[in-house]
Amino acid sequence: MGKTKAIIFFLVAFLLLACTARQSNNKQLIWADSLMRSLPDSALSVLQNISTQEFTSPADSAYYALLLTQARDKNYVVQVDDSLIRYAVAHYDKIGNTRMQASAHYYWGCVYRDMNKQTEAFREYLIAAPLTKAVGEKRQLGLIYNNIGYIYYILNFKEKADSIYQLMENIAQDLKDMDLWAEALSRQGSIALMKGRDYFSVAERKLLDAFVVADRIENNEIKADISATLSRLYNQMDQGGKALYYGKLNLSLRRDTARAYRSFLILGDAYYKIGEYDSATFYLNKSLLSKDYGRRADAYMRLADIAMIQGNAALSMRLERYSSTYKDSLYQFRRNIVTDKIVEAETDARLMLHQLYYKGRLNIYLCVFIPVTIIIIMIVFLLYRKNKQYRGKNDLLQKNNQQLEKVNQDLSQHYACLQKEITQRDLEIENLRKELASCRIDEERREKIRVELDEMVLRRKALVKEAFLHSPLYAKMQAIIKDYLEPVGGIKKIIY
3-class SS at 3? Predict the structure, then answer.
């Protein structure tokens, strides 16, 4: 019985341990994780100095793969291989750890982004978003929304992008995260600008609010993007002076001013609006070095306008053809992405989330219901054994009671016979005493009767003793004495 309990307990403990072994306990990895938010460069240094041969479990390897990918991303290291994060994703999807799944899928999307695989990155972000929301990681959810919104934005899904950035703004306000807030406001302003003249006032308000927030936290990268959008906005609002101011500010805030092709295009457009065509031509030609089809198409169109204003119609027509060619290529490129890849990525993400959901449910069944089932079986088994033992004891007790009852009946019959014999002896003793008291018998006869009387008394005493030993009272006394002398665990039922 003890061995059975031990085996069942071991099985339940093993299942529970297997289900809860979700995270590595490697101290170096935990230390690196604690440094990730505030000191990502230190976290990367710690991870690079860890020997992977020290890992003793898949949990260690997966945790290391996720942290190293995360540290590289936070330190702006371009990653061109997804084998590391792919291992982490496979491990966490298998064990069903939602928190780690969310991070793994998000950083897989970041790696795809670095590899310029936008649709694959988009799919991973769509998978990571509901997982991250489920575990309450708001800042990571804000970053995921930023990436999803940006992809919708560049592919001209204005309404979807705007709704995503509104969610991102709510998260930023809850967390008081100024970086996310400035980014969300900036993107909403850009989308309002894309919607046309009726939304210019909304765009201006959003962008100026974003600029104030970015200036407060001294984030020059976001300020540069906001300045670029404000310059474009004021160009379309025919406010050339403001457009030129923000165009120059945009270029001055860029880290690499030699290859700031978007800034060159914006500044050239601003100079065009105020009629400084030489400066406009200079910056527009510099922007043509960009590999972006849309940027080239816009630059050629503006250069064609300048050529037409300056009276060179032939050059203007040639530049317009160049612009049209790049626009057609850009349209075909975007159309192929939208129809063949983006919709497919959304479908793949939904299917993957369904699979992860059902796999998670299966893990719950394995980790909860199986141990519970084993415990129930154990309880039923123990109750059955106990009931079986109780029935056996009950049958034995009943059999013993029947035997005792039979013995008591025999003793009662024997006791009745003894009582009858004692009564007969009492009569004989009485007769002998009477005869002894009579004066008619001689001395010799008297002595003989006295001897017989003494023998009769002795026999009566023996009969009385034997009767007492076989009486119910004596049996009760013996049972009480025996019960008193037995250990505490022993129980003797006394029959009255």
Answer: helix
